[in-house]
Amino acid sequence: MDKIADILTTFTGPIPPDGRHRAEKLRRQQATQKKAEQVYLNTLSVSFVNSYLQYMGFETDLDKSDCNPLQQTLMDVADLSLKNLGALECRPVLEDAQFVYVPPEVHSNRIGYVAVQIKKSFREATLLGFVRQVQTDFLLINQLQPLDNLLEYLEELTQVKQAELASQSLTSNKTLVKLKQWLENIFEGGWQEVETFFDHQTANLDWSLRGANNSFISRGKLIDLGKTETIQGVILVVAFIQEKEQEIDIIVEVHPTSQESYLPPNLQLMVLDFEEAEEKSIMEAQTRSTNKNIQLQFSGNVGERFSIKLVLGDISVIESFLI
Known about the structure:
This protein is an alpha+beta fold.
């Protein structure tokens, strides 16, 4: 393997203890020795790649990978899910192997394939290299691309995905947010608990709606405004309380993300009323140089529609709501 190490940029390190324990647990659940060895090596490989990529700053999600206990039993899979990017197949090889086996069931739906050499102790592993696509079940190890190329490739995918997400969010969001469903704990994608975005000191926002009655609903959403100097996004918070059967009181606030102290100057917050197939601004607020938040309050009747519009320079984002 010294010859291969000279050709490829590799990485050697310990397999995380929790990964080894999980691999051992899954191995004991298999019906045959052959399947047990396959699941054991696959799990070790995924754990090692997961640890390495997290250290390199990439977001991974083991829970979304196909290599769960059921899939492991039915198929030969060793994939690791990378947030917003896709699945990376982590194929194990032993120290004396000259090729990497890639089973037919993983020839598609993968953003790439990494070769993971498992040491005889099963406590260490080496990332030998990767390829973006496969067209055969067997890959020669000496034909793998350097590990550095994998990191560059994942960075490129991340930038492309961020650009796509920004492009999608810089237009009117076609999803109609139904506030009445929030009372039933049904929330549209992207709307999260306010505490998700703020620390404990700032999460308890001083809303006048709260008053003596704490039973109101609030949710926040990260709004991407694109790259404007150092500002890339803000947190849009919507809170409401229904004290009358057909009317609710609503507060809309905009806050900087946890990485910023202030909102960008000249950021406009508007509430648009939907009348005769047209949306018309009924109230507005705008930041100055050092605003930590901006807020608008209004009331609406059940069944009415309105939109919230954020404008920064030539960038605008619209979120539409149904009361």
